[in-house]
Fold this sequence. Notes:
The protein is α+β, with helices and mostly antiparallel strands. It has helices spanning 44-62, 65-81, 92-101, 110-116, 121-127; strands at 14-16, 21-26, 31-36. It is 41% helix and 10% strand. A hairpin with a 4-residue loop joins strand 1 (14-16) and strand 2 (21-26). Helix 2 (65-81) packs across helix 3 (92-101).
Amino acid sequence: MRATFYRNIKTLSGKDIPGNMVFNSYKDDTICIVRRYVYPTLTDNNELAGAKVRAAAALWKLAHTNFVRDLGVYARAYNSQILNSKSLYLSAYNVFMMGVLKHPAPITTIAQLKTQIGESVDDWISMYSLPKVNLSVALTANIAP
């Protein structure tokens, strides 16, 4: 069926609450697809992933400001030296999450984080084989004072 819209297809993207329908545009806004909204089923993997992210977010708030600064220095150096133009820029939070979420179980305390990953950003870089970047300073600030 062919339909003509009185507005741009992009303006229709979203969810119609009473009808429980989802609208979205594809192929440079030339095709509009409408379907019923399907609620995803929760599994054990969803629960584990959610627990890991919640624990990592809580640890991020506890991290020392010098450690966060060092993560930011590494992320900026990575963005300028290694990153290709099609990828998204790294931030200090991205580097932190990459490290914490690689473990099979949630890391809930700073002490656990120190023993499993390391105390400084240099430890994180060597632990996860992150690409080496040219830095003028050593990233030795500890995660906790």
